[in-house]
């Protein structure tokens, strides 16, 4: 039950100083909490004139008799001053009570003050670790997971950790110590009454524990359903054009309503069960007080083994136990809920990264000779995608890939970026196997422009700066000019400081694509990958982008995927792919005369 809790608490290692301060002040709080009730005795004795006359000063007889020493000292002081100044004595004992309550609450505040740093530090580091893991995980992980579920884990599950796990950190020390100190004081008053309390508290805890056993499962179901409707929200926002043109609004509404209905039902069941914690623990507490009043009342009235004032204080101490006991019972519910959230978060953190640098990985400082695919095989989910594929890209060459959809063109770019590892064969750069190259240095040498212009909700300048973080403003402007983007950027409301919106949606398709080309130019990579960079553009935009691409590819090694002949006819070599294999290769002119499929493809392009 506590395994996930312990793993989450490991994030608080660097904040252990705050934890120790919290424990220190919580210990003092628990001590003063018990003493503040004990201090009521002399005040009640003064009020009811039942103070035991103490003629001689109290004697200290060791730590085990400290309670007697304190009681006799107070009685001696009160006995000495009561006859002379009753009002002054009353003010003294009231001042004593107020001082102890003040110290108790001051320590409580300081304990909460210091644990704030621990709680928020754990949350900060947990979020950072999650984000770092998301950044590091391979592409195939995200292909298998729903975006909405990942978002739910990183938002609502983390919030549940804060509300459930971390909210009880202050209870771990404070409440048990409050119970222990109160019990010690109660033993000094009456062993029989205290033994009764010790029997009743575990019984109450067992009842509360049984009520909360199903909370973890129900909480996991709630978080799962929240992930479902977050996924639908994400799809709805990103797919607005399709939803509207296909009149699919009703269909998506039904999906969303069904998800929220399930969330509604699971949440009701969860909260109904969780709501039992307060009433059940309070009723059990009042029942204990009721039996205690009957049992203790007999001791006061019949046995006279305890005084009336002592019994009143004893009831206060018993209540001082029931309050933290109630908090602990609620905490058990919180742990069950937080445990489900922690399991979902740890699922991400414990995911093994299948694409990691090997121990002997080397730096790829520059690209000098060639890229070699030699008898490469690759399958995705046991479905063969690339089969016995071999070709070479020499430094400075432009190699183009053509073929029908599903022939493996984009997969080759993924393998070259090491988004996936090959199953068999050799994929190397300058005779170094790709898995022996440090990924960071590999990416530093590769630039990529895809059909989908991936931009971020930030300024034009910051989007371009992703290509080279230390670039100057002049470097950014020069890259934009080379990509035929400077002119339209200058016409934007704030120029290079204009925010382009989510995914760059404030720009046209051609403008977005020219920004991605400018970003690649700024990076100045040795190897350039173009994945159908102009296929989604109209003729005018294509011409502008094509001009920018030619500047980008100049004196650079390029691997190009294109549906349009204008992009690839100048390639040094064109590979015709089909079902993951190279079925023909050569220059544009050669393939026109030797390969019927390629010639047919070119004719279709010209008709377009």
Task: Summarize this structure as a short list of keywords or feature phrases.
608 residues; alpha/beta; ABC transporter transmembrane region fold; Rossmann fold; 4-stranded antiparallel beta sheet; elongated
Q: Short description, anyone?
A:
With 608 residues, the chain is of the alpha/beta class. It has helices at residues 3-9, 16-38, 40-48, 66-82, 86-136, 139-144, 147-154, 156-165, 169-189, 191-211, 215-238, 240-245, 249-274, 277-303, 308-349, 409-416, 439-444, 460-465, 473-482, 486-490, 509-523, 539-553, 565-568, 588-594, 596-607, and strands at residues 370-380, 383-394, 398-402, 424-429, 432-433, 446-450, 527-531, 557-561, 573-578, 581-586.
CATH architecture of the largest domain: Up-down Bundle
Q: What name does CATH use for the topology of the largest domain?
A: ABC transporter transmembrane region fold
Name the poorly predicted regions.
none
> What is the number of strand segments?
10
How many domains? The number is 2
Query: What amount of the residues lies in strands?
Result: 5-15%
Rg, alpha carbons: 37 Å
- Judged by helices, strands and strand pairing, the structural class is alpha/beta
Structure annotation, total helices: 25
Q: Largest sheet at a glance?
A: 6 strands, mixed
CATH class of the largest domain: Mainly Alpha
Shape assignment: elongated
Distance from N terminus to C terminus (CA atoms, Å) equals 65 Å
């Amino acid at each position: 039950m506590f395994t996930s809790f312990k793993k989450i608490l490991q994030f608080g290692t660097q904040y252990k100083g705050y934890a120790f301060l919290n424990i220190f002040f919580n210990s003092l709080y628990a001590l003063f909490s018990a003493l503040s009730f004990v201090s009521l005795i002399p005040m009640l004795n003064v009020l009811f004139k039942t103070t035991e006359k103490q003629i001689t000063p109290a004697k200290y007889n060791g730590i085990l008799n400290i309670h007697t020493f304190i009681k006799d000292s107070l009685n001696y002081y009160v006995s000495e001053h009561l006859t002379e100044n009753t009002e002054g004595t009353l003010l003294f004992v009231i001042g004593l009570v107020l001082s102890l309550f003040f110290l108790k609450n001051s320590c409580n505040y300081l304990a909460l003050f210091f644990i704030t740093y621990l709680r928020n530090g754990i949350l900060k580091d947990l979020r950072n670790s999650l984000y770092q893991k998301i950044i590091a995980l391979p592409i195939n992980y995200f292909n298998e997971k729903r975006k909405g579920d990942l978002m739910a884990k990183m938002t609502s599950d983390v919030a549940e950790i804060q509300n459930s796990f971390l909210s009880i950190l202050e209870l771990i020390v404070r409440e048990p110590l409050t119970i222990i100190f109160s019990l010690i004081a109660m033993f000094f008053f009456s062993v029989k009454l205290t033994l009764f309390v010790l029997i009743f508290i575990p019984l109450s805890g067992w009842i509360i524990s049984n009520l909360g056993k199903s909370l973890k499962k129900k909480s996991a179901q709630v978080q799962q359903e929240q992930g479902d409707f977050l996924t639908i929200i994400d799809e709805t926002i990103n797919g607005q054009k399709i939803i509207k043109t296909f009149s699919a609004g009703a269909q998506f509404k039904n999906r969303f309503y069904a998800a929220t209905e399930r969330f509604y039902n699971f949440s009701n069941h969860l909260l109904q069960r969780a709501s039992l914690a307060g009433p059940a623990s309070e009723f059990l507490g009042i029942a204990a007080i009721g039996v205690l009043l009957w049992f203790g009342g007999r001791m006061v009235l019949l046995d006279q083994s305890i005084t009336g004032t002592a019994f009143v204080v004893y009831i206060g101490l018993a209540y001082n136990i029931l309050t933290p006991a109630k908090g602990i019972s609620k905490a058990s519910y919180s742990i069950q809920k937080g445990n489900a959230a922690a399991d979902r978060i740890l699922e991400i953190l414990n995911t093994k990264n299948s694409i990691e640098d090997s121990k002997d990985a080397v730096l790829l400082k520059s690209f000098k000779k060639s890229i070699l695919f030699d008898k490469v095989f690759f399958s995705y989910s046991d479905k063969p995608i690339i089969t016995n594929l071999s070709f070479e890209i020499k430094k400075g060459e432009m190699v183009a890939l053509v073929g029908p959809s599903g022939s493996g063109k984009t997969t080759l770019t993924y393998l070259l970026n090491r988004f996936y590892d090959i199953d068999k064969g050799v994929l190397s750069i300058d005779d170094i196997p790709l898995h022996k190259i440090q990924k960071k240095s590999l990416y530093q040498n590769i630039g990529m422009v895809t059909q989908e212009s991936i931009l971020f909700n930030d300024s034009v300048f910051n989007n371009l700066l992703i290509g080279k973080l230390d670039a100057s403003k002049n470097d950014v402007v020069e890259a934009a000019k080379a990509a035929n983007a400077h002119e339209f950027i200058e016409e934007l409301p704030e120029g290079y400081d204009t925010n382009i919106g989510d995914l760059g949606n404030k720009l046209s398709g051609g403008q977005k694509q020219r920004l991605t080309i400018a970003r690649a130019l700024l990076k100045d990579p040795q190897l350039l990958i173009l994945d159908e960079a102009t296929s989604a553009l109209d003729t005018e935009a294509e011409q502008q982008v094509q001009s920018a691409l030619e500047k980008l590819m100049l004196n650079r090694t390029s691997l190009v995927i294109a549906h349009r002949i204008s992009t690839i006819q100048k390639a040094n070599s064109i590979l015709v792919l089909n079902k993951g294999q190279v079925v023909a290769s050569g220059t544009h002119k050669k393939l026109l005369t030797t390969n019927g499929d390629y010639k047919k493809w070119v004719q279709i392009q010209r008709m377009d």
